[in-house]
């Protein structure tokens, strides 16, 4: 599979969570895709670890891109989105933020949110 300079596939779907490298990278992903679910997480966070396999499953089953932002590594980026706790999930549709939720949410709820933003 061909990749661009950031390791992002050049094909239509991304079937696994995508690690965000910086604010410009996140902006590019949000602008390029119909639906993006951004997971602001920390490695030390238990609920974040519980959410990880749920997000991996959603990445493979939905048209949305799942993007991961490590809040310890990207503190300014997390602050720019008003992240005060982890995990925080921000949903973007057509380049605009439409939802922000905190906590480890069940897969079915996240799937419904994503499907509401895509043509699935």
Automatic annotation (TrEMBL):
<keyword id="KW-0813">Transport</keyword>
<feature type="site" description="Deprotonates C-terminal active site Cys">
    <location>
        <position position="39"/>
    </location>
</feature>
<feature type="active site" description="Nucleophile">
    <location>
        <position position="48"/>
    </location>
</feature>
<dbReference type="InterPro" id="IPR005746">
    <property type="entry name" value="Thioredoxin"/>
</dbReference>
<keyword id="KW-1015">Disulfide bond</keyword>
<keyword id="KW-0249">Electron transport</keyword>
<keyword id="KW-0676">Redox-active center</keyword>
<feature type="active site" description="Nucleophile">
    <location>
        <position position="45"/>
    </location>
</feature>
<dbReference type="Pfam" id="PF00085">
    <property type="entry name" value="Thioredoxin"/>
</dbReference>
<feature type="disulfide bond" description="Redox-active">
    <location>
        <begin position="45"/>
        <end position="48"/>
    </location>
</feature>
<feature type="region of interest" description="Disordered">
    <location>
        <begin position="1"/>
        <end position="20"/>
    </location>
</feature>
<feature type="domain" description="Thioredoxin">
    <location>
        <begin position="1"/>
        <end position="119"/>
    </location>
</feature>
<dbReference type="InterPro" id="IPR013766">
    <property type="entry name" value="Thioredoxin_domain"/>
</dbReference>
<feature type="site" description="Contributes to redox potential value">
    <location>
        <position position="46"/>
    </location>
</feature>
<feature type="site" description="Contributes to redox potential value">
    <location>
        <position position="47"/>
    </location>
</feature>
<protein>
    <submittedName>
        <fullName>Thioredoxin</fullName>
    </submittedName>
</protein>
<dbReference type="InterPro" id="IPR017937">
    <property type="entry name" value="Thioredoxin_CS"/>
</dbReference>
<dbReference type="InterPro" id="IPR036249">
    <property type="entry name" value="Thioredoxin-like_sf"/>
</dbReference>
């Amino acid at each position: 599979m061909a990749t661009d300079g950031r390791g992002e596939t050049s094909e239509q779907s991304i079937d696994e969570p995508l690690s965000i490298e910086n604010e410009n990278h996140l902006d590019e992903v949000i602008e390029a895709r119909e639906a993006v679910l951004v997971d602001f997480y920390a490695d030390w966070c238990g609920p974040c670890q519980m959410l990880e396999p749920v997000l991996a499953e959603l990445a493979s089953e939905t048209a949305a891109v799942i993007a991961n932002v490590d809040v310890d590594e990207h503190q300014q980026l997390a602050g720019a989105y008003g992240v005060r706790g982890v995990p925080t999930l921000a949903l973007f549709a057509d380049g605009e933020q439409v939802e922000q939720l905190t906590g480890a949410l069940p897969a079915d709820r996240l799937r419904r949110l994503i499907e509401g933003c895509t043509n699935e």
